[in-house]
Design a protein that fits this description.
Blueprint (H helix, E strand, L loop, with lengths): L19 H6 L10 E7 L6 E3 L7 E3 L1 H14 L3 E6 L19 H12 L4 E6 L13 E2 L2 E2 L2 H17 L3 E4 L6 H11 L6 E8 L6 H6 L21 H13 L3 E5 L5 H11 L3 E5 L1 H12 L5 H14 L4 E4 L2 H8 L3
Parallel strand pairs: 1-3, 1-4, 1-12, 4-5, 5-8, 8-9, 9-10, 10-11, 11-12
Antiparallel strand pairs: 2-3, 6-7
The structure holds ligand PBG.
The site of ligand PBG has 11 residues, from helix 6.
Length: about 325
């Protein structure tokens, strides 16, 4: 249906733009704190907040500080925190066994947050890259990232995270078949209510650079992730992946990165109508922050405009390092 409008001057599109009240009245989408998922980096220690050089304003937090961040999320109306560990290099091994250690950093932080701030949902990534000495999301043999062997480790990791109390699991590994095996392992173990937000359309992107610094995977990573993450040239493939993950038992799907892939968000939402999220990744954050710090653009406005774009593109929410700052502004300061 084409919206009808009379010819000028009967129609003047500027009429409803004249005042803030009129503009608010005709706004088609709105961003709220409840749309935001706040990714938080963790490190070992106590009372520590260590700046991430490539992400100005973002810090790696010790567990006690992460609990404080979760309290802040609750106060700001942010419903979910997503935890990512900086793993001590000494704990990284070719079998990535630390991924399913019940006492690993994310599991300890999850228990602490769920005990202190139960109303904030905790989301944990399912992928091996923070734990693997190869820096890859799966097990590596002879330079090849193994699919089926990796699934067995992902299942152990997912169960340890569900056991720790994670509300949402975010498989970000891009191995084929993971959603199905994770869903059936969760059901069998009695974790019937654990939500899976699949990183369904995840591209092999240059925009993950600062994240890999933040979790200490940059030095470890050998080669690139192009044999398992998507080719940025593709769009139909994203729909096939989302269809597969939804039929394998994902509750929600994600597109990642965000801003360069808003077309994918819109196609996914239109095609499936499922809860759809985007990840405004580390490089997107760094770009806006770097320009703002140079005085080249108004950082606050650029932040809110970029987040609004996700809602306009059909997303139900967005993972963003801007979450606490944006929520504060959206709450009125
Ligand atoms: C790893 C993972 C990555 C991100 C989230 N989970 C990086 C990667 O795939 O290399 C990136 C997030 C960001 O850049 O902010 N499985």
């Amino acid at each position: 249906m084409q919206p009808l409008s009379a010819p000028f001057p009967a129609t003047r599109f500027r009429r409803p733009r004249r005042t803030p009240a009129l503009r608010a009245l005709v706004a088609e989408t709105a961003l709220a704190p409840s749309d935001l998922i706040w990714p938080v980096f963790l490190r070992d220690g106590e009372d520590l907040a260590e700046p991430v050089a490539s992400m100005p304003g973002v810090e790696r937090l010790s567990v006690d500080r992460a609990v404080a961040a979760a309290r802040q999320a609750a106060a700001l109306g942010i419903p979910v925190v997503a935890l990512f560990p900086y793993t001590d290099p000494a704990l990284k091994t070719p079998d990535a066994a630390e991924a399913y250690n019940p006492e690993n950093l994310v599991n300890r932080a999850t228990r602490a947050i769920k005990a202190a701030v139960p109303d904030v949902a905790v989301m944990l990534d399912v992928a091996l890259d923070p734990y693997n000495s190869d820096g890859h999301d799966g097990l590596v043999r002879d330079g090849v990232v193994l699919n089926d062997e990796t699934l067995e480790v992902l299942v152990k990791q997912a169960l340890s995270h569900a056991e720790a109390g994670a509300d949402i699991l975010g498989p970000s590994d891009m191995m084929d078949g993971r959603i199905g095996v994770l869903r059936s392992a969760l059901e069998t173990a009695g974790h019937r209510d654990t939500v899976i937000m699949s990183y369904a359309a995840k591209y092999a992107s240059a925009f993950y650079g600062p994240f890999r610094d933040a979790v200490g995977a940059t030095g470890a990573l050998k080669g690139d992730k192009k044999t398992y993450q998507m080719n940025p040239a593709n769009s139909d493939e994203a729909l096939r992946l989302v269809a597969r993950d939804l039929s394998d038992g994902a509750d929600m799907v994600m597109v990642k990165p965000g801003l360069p892939y808003l077309d994918i968000c819109r196609r996914v939402k239109n095609a499936f109508g499922a809860p759809t999220f985007a990840y405004q990744v580390s490089g997107e954050y760094a770009m806006i922050e770097a320009a703002a710090l140079n005085g080249w653009l108004d950082g606050e406005r650029a932040m809110l405009e970029s987040l609004a774009g996700f809602k306009r593109a059909g997303c139900d929410g967005v993972l963003s390092y801007f979450a606490p700052r944006a929520a504060k502004i959206l709450q009125g300061g």
